[in-house]
Amino acid sequence: MGRCKSHSADDGGEGSQGRGETLNTHHLSPYMKPLGSDYSNGVNFAIAGATATPGDTPFSLDVQIDQFIFYRDRCNDSITRDEPAPLNMLDFERALYTMDIGQNDITSILYLPYDEVLAKLPHFVAEIRKAIEILHKNGARKFWIHGTGALGCLPAKLAMPRASDGDLDEHGCIAKFNNAAKKFNTLLSEACDDLRLLLKKSSIIFVDMFAIKYDLVANHTKHGIEKPLMTCCGHGGPPYNYDPKRSCMGDSKDLCKLGDKFISWDGVHFTDAANSIVASMAISGEYSVPRMKLTSLVKPAKSKAS
């Protein structure tokens, strides 16, 4: 983030990429690719498909946190041996720690009855809260926490068979799925409120990603979007151009000519154009609690490891 050291733990989505480009800094080097990586600007612990809860994925949030602690200890060991290290302990304290995780957990249970979905959300949030507390114990002081997006507006969900269109809202999104996402965000925002009181001398910012991503759909013409609920790269044509049995990478995919007119790239992930809009809105401070621009948490000075 900017020129500050930052550490990203998330579900492997587009969040950290969009934030980095908007702040005019190079992408963070992934922790899982040590060869040729430059960690002086930060480390990205994100893994595609990661979840906040352990069990179903090999690199859930708790594993990412363990990887961070191992990396931090390795840097500290190098310093104590008077060896070069990309980051020193002050760097870790000054770093901005970003989290964007939980969407995969929620989408994996949306087939359940709605009351059962709601019952599981506190457990997902508890894992994120625990991760923040562990990071704080290990020196982290600045946190930028993303809520989840408008899951009911994803073409991958909209293309699922449904008995009727009665559960679609005025913009064509699945209301029940979006309500679950909003409930998750409410719980996560409340957890951040609690941690703000508990973890002294810390900045914990919650960003309402649902409001941002739903705005892209509800006010798509304002953002230059023509096909808010249709994938750019997929199969089947309108209304969603999405077929779960046929990958976007397949030979017979239908690829749009103008990706900047679409929100969704493959039914789940956003196009670069949509990511750019989302990132600009996220760092603006207008959707954060407390209201704060991301740039205010980024220090321009770059310390040297010693």
Describe the protein.
- With 306 residues, this protein is α/β, with parallel strands linked by helices.
- It has a single domain, classed as Rossmann fold (3-Layer(aba) Sandwich).
- It is built from nine helices and eleven strands.
- It has helices at 15-22, 61-80, 89-94, 103-107, 114-137, 155-158, 175-198, 209-218, 272-283, and strands at residues 6-10, 29-30, 42-44, 96-100, 142-146, 203-207, 227-231, 233-234, 254-255, 262-264, 288-289.
- The strands form three sheets. The protein has a seven-stranded mixed sheet. A two-stranded parallel sheet has the order 7-10. The chain has a two-stranded antiparallel ribbon with strand order 8-9.
- It is globular, with a radius of gyration of 20 Å.
- The two termini are 22 Å apart.
Short descriptors:
single chain, 306 residues, alpha/beta, Rossmann fold, 7-stranded mixed beta sheet, two-stranded parallel sheet, 9 helices, 11 strands, 37% helix, globular, disordered C terminus
Report mean pLDDT, rounded to a whole number. 85
| Number of H/I helices | 9
Q: Which strand order does the major sheet show?
A: 2-3-1-4-5-6-11
The outline comes out as globular
Strand content: 5-15%
Indicate the CATH class: Alpha Beta
Helix percent reads 25-40%
Instruction: Work out the oligomeric state of the chains in this entry.
Output: single chain
Succession of helices and strands: EHEEHHEHHEHHEHEEEEHE
User: Given the helix and strand composition, which structural class is it?
Assistant: alpha/beta
| Biggest sheet descriptor | 7 strands, mixed
GO molecular function: hydrolase activity, acting on ester bonds
Protein name: GDSL esterase/lipase
Keywords: Glycoprotein
Family: Belongs to the 'GDSL' lipolytic enzyme family.
